[in-house]
Specification:
The structure holds 2 protein chains of 2 kinds. By secondary structure, chain A is mostly helical. Helix content of chain A is 75%, strand content 1%. In chain A, α7 packs across α9 and α11 packs antiparallel against α13. Chain B starts with a helix and ends in a 7-residue tail after the last helix. The longest helix of chain B has 37 residues. The chains are: A mainly alpha, B mainly alpha.
């Protein structure tokens, strides 16, 4: 493993940056990451299967609960869905159907699960992506400001605010926002993705959606703003003690330039790693946010599926969410590696 | 290692430790004395519905839309929230310690397998998995504790593994091996007691997270239908948000201050147990 690290630490300067992916240890690293991604999805699939098996009754029992069925009819249905097969055959069949993105049929929506998820996916993606961008920017700025003022009242008040953001659960932040901005002040729409029946077009529609999504996105942001703030502060304090920062100061560069160009670039590295973890957490938080704000996303779909006992739909959402997180993490890893050749490949 | 009294005393002389400890003692007292103060339980229809706090001295925190005493709910809710938080944290500490300990002590292929599993668990959206587990198995205290523990052990496993990797090279471990002590005794009897400090610090944060997850599940209506936790009260109050916001605000304050307190105590424990880190 140590030769891998040295090879990575001294990248071939003559090679074009894009070629790095084709040379030396990199394909092995990519392969390793790919196999890890595959393992995550395998775990999701096996976990889902075990969960369904642990639950009392099977799909036919649920169907039979809604309609009068004789024992023969139930047995026929079990044979049709392959529920009479040995467990390992059922597991292999389940894996095969998920690998081909066949999540089955949702009786609740009277449509294939994949169609429902594809229709709801963009709302959640919009929520999550804007939350990542906003919390990273705001959190980093707060962390940097706190680090520059380390020990004085500015630092203390930012740290207290961060602690409060950190300790307040997402759904309470969301309710607090609704209470303050919708109920007391009447400034913001209380729920929904856009104004019902308004039929806005063009920029007017975009603005309408933005006003509807402001509170959900901000509510989803607070926790990770606090995390970025804490990590950013610590990373910045550490970087500011390094020799190259002293050199930059000695050169007579402005404090602003030293902080935001020289120091921040290195302090950002731990923040980027956090982004992958954040996406995973936000997908879960989206369930609460979309339910509270009545947004037609995947989280809301999962919530409805639980209460309608629509297992196919619920597990479909879990699968697609996990797949999205895995893809995002993979892309972040690849970006990270392309940006910083020192990144450890082991 | 360290006397329990001694540790408490050192915690209490730490500013954020003192604030945190006070709030936690309050919450625990509410849980312990819930039956003594409100013996008829949180579900009794005790008075007229929608009484605002202070409107009637008999109900200092008011009543909800069915006329249940909010103070009774808060006291009994403390019991459920704290119990679920502590139980779930305990189960995940046990799983995480076993996985992390074996991984760090033996290394090699076992470490590879266990750490890949830990990575994978950390990638899967945890709250969504918790919803799926509770939704499919049916909401009850045990499935909720199981769901929270299953999604939160990886953090402990990483921590314990890192400690074991550091400690296994120490002389005392080598000596234990030389005198022929069994691996299990070395892992659980010798190395584990030496990495209790970071585990204790992480546990306080873990309890806080578990309380939040339980409250979120109950808020969505996925709590155990037989018990009332702070999340249940929050979920019930949501429907009356426009007209009677105190029904959500009161349990929210209880929840946030308990979570805040656990985090403060975690920070203070970190300072008290690792004095060297303070210099950084």
């Amino acid at each position: 493993m140590s030769d891998l690290k040295t090879a990575a630490a001294t990248p071939d300067r003559n090679a074009a940056p894009g070629l790095r992916f084709l040379l030396g240890p990199l394909p092995r690293y990519v392969l390793r990451r790919l196999s890890q991604a595959f393992l995550v999805m395998l775990l999701v699939v096996v976990g889902s299967f075990v969960l369904v098996k642990m639950a009392p009754g099977d799909m036919v029992d649920v169907l039979a609960g809604n309609a009068d069925m004789t024992a023969e009819q139930m047995a026929a249905l079990r044979a049709r869905y392959g529920l009479d097969q040995p467990t390992w055959v059922q597991l292999l069949r389940y894996m095969y159907s998920l690998a081909t993105l066949d999540f089955g049929y949702s009786p609740l929506n009277a449509a294939p699960v994949l169609d429902i998820i594809l229709a709801r996916w963009p709302v959640t993606a919009l929520l999550v992506v804007s939350s990542v961008l906003i919390s990273m920017t705001v959190g980093t700025i707060m962390g940097v400001v706190a680090a520059r003022n380390a020990g004085n009242p500015v630092d203390l008040s930012i740290s207290l605010l961060m602690l409060f953001f950190y300790a307040t659960p997402t759904f309470i932040v969301a309710i607090g926002f609704i209470l303050i901005f919708s109920v007391f002040l009447g400034m913001m729409p209380i729920a929904g993705f856009s104004t019902v029946g308004a039929d806005y077009t063009g920029l007017r529609y975009v603005w309408d959606v933005i006003t509807h999504l402001t509170m959900p996105v901000l509510a989803l942001c607070t926790f990770f703003t606090a995390i970025y703030g804490r990590i950013g502060r610590a990373a910045m304090l550490e970087v500011l003690t390094l020799d190259y920062v002293r050199t930059a100061r000695a050169k007579g560069l402005s404090e602003r330039r030293v902080i935001y160009v020289h120091a921040l670039r290195n302090a950002m590295l731990p923040l980027v790693t956090m982004a992958g973890l954040q996406v995973s957490s936000l997908v879960g938080g989206a369930v609460l946010i979309e339910t509270i704000f009545g947004l037609p996303g995947m989280g809301r779909t999962a919530f409805d599926a639980v209460f309608e006992r629509d297992t196919n739909l619920l597990l479909g959402v879990v699968f697609v969410s996990s797949l999205s997180v895995v893809v995002v993490n993979f892309v972040i890893d690849m970006l990270y590696m392309a940006l910083d050749p020192r990144v450890e490949l082991a | 290692m360290f006397g329990r009294r001694f540790l408490l005393w050192r915690l209490a002389s730490h500013p954020s430790g003192l604030v945190g400890l006070t709030l936690i003692v309050l919450a625990v007292a509410m849980a312990v004395f819930a039956d003594w103060f409100y013996s008829s339980g949180p579900w009794t229809l005790a008075g007229p519905p929608r009484l605002w706090p202070g409107q009637d001295p008999a109900f200092p925190l008011g009543t909800d839309s069915l006329g249940r005493d909010l103070a009774a709910g808060l006291f009994h809710g403390a019991r459920v929230s704290l119990a679920v938080g502590i139980a779930a944290a305990a189960v995940s500490v046990v799983i995480g310690t076993v996985v992390g300990g074996l991984s760090g002590y033996y290394g090699g292929w076992l470490d590879d397998v266990l750490m890949r599993l830990t990575d994978a668990m950390q990638t899967i959206p945890s709250f969504l998995s918790a919803i799926a587990i509770v939704g499919i198995l049916g909401p009850s205290l045990s499935t909720i504790i199981f769901a929270i523990a299953i999604v939160s052990w990886p953090m402990i496993a990483r921590l314990v593994r890192a400690e074991f990797l550091r400690l296994r090279t120490y002389d005392f471990v080598q000596s234990c091996k030389i005198i022929g002590m069994s691996d299990m005794r070395i892992i659980f009897g010798q190395i584990l007691p030496n990495c209790m400090a970071p585990i204790i610090v992480a546990s306080s944060v873990l309890v806080a997270t578990a309380i939040i997850v339980e409250a979120s599940l109950s808020f969505l209506g996925l709590g155990d239908p037989n018990v009332m936790s702070w999340g249940t009260i929050l979920g019930n109050g949501r429907a009356a948000l426009r007209t009677a916001w105190y029904m959500t605000a009161i349990p929210a304050v209880a929840l946030v201050s308990t979570v805040l307190a656990l985090n403060l105590v975690g920070d203070a424990l970190n300072d008290v147990l690792n004095p060297r880190l303070k210099e950084r």
